[in-house]
Amino acid sequence: MNAPVPRWAPVAGTAPVEIEFRNVGKCFARKGEKQAPHVVRNVNFTIRKGEVVSIIGPSGCGKSTLLNMGSGLYPASEGEVIVGGERVTGPVRKIAFMLQKDLLMPWRSIRRNVELGLEIDGRPAAERRAVADELLTRCHLDGFGDHYPFQLSGGMRQRAALARTLAIDPQVLFLDEPFSALDAQTKMILQQDLARMLFEEKKTALFITHDLTEAIALSDRLLVMSARPGTLVEEIVVDLPLRENPLERRKLPEIGPLAGRLMDLLKVGEDTELH
């Protein structure tokens, strides 16, 4: 008799730690202030290789600040960030960043936008083209390589941005609300594409979103932050199957209670007045 298939297969606890925040805090000094206020403080968490972890929290709690410190765009005021076993002291090449705006260069074709990181890295033209064409096919943009950004819809431009992000074969992806500007149907299609790629290539990802269902559908774990100064108030393991198939995961009955728990933690609606 065959053993039952587990409902959820978490990333192995023996997988190496890819990202670590140790007692991290960040202050931004403002003119005339003797003591700069904290944006985030006392943030501690680890992410293992191959995990997808989402950070959720109120607007202004410092979610994007964590990504900026993790990628080395600016330093932590306190504590330290470690990526791939090395302390972050400047921009980290093994990390690729994807934002809510596609930021495609309007004067470059879609193919040449996808090639940008490889071009900066000095790769030969033939290699750049081969990688770009493969990713355009995987991102359902076959035949659009010679188009320009203004000729594509918002969803197609975001697909191109995803292809550009993956072209440099990053070890770690930081995703800051990459689908927030899209309509619901396009958003779910792109979530599906991203989830499948992350799963198949065993990429590590740190994801920011305000969409609670999106966070649950895409993630192995959820990190919940408090209001500013942001700190982690809870870690939730998403004990569900189908991380590689968020369209199907969304249909699971456990999604509703998990979203409700997140709403309670975030105190959604607590101070809302009805008019």
**Shape from CA axes?**
globular
Structural class: alpha/beta
Strand content bin = 15-25%
Radius of gyration: 19 Å
How would you describe this protein?
With 275 residues, the chain is of the alpha/beta class. The protein folds into two domains: 17-94 and 174-266, P-loop containing nucleotide triphosphate hydrolases (Rossmann fold), CATH 3.40.50.300; 105-169, no CATH class. It has nine helices and ten strands. It has helices at residues 63-70, 110-114, 116-120, 125-138, 154-167, 184-201, 212-218, 246-249, 255-266, and strands at residues 17-27, 38-48, 52-56, 78-83, 86-87, 95-98, 172-176, 204-208, 221-225, 232-237. It has a six-stranded mixed sheet, sandwiched between helices. A four-stranded antiparallel sheet has the order 2-1-4-5, with helices on one face. A hairpin with a 2-residue loop joins strand 4 (78-83) and strand 5. Helix 4 crosses helix 5, helix 5 (154-167) runs parallel beside helix 6 and helix 7 crosses helix 9 (255-266). The longest helix has 18 residues, at 184-201. It is globular and about 50 Å long. The termini are far apart. Residues 1-12 have low confidence and may be disordered.
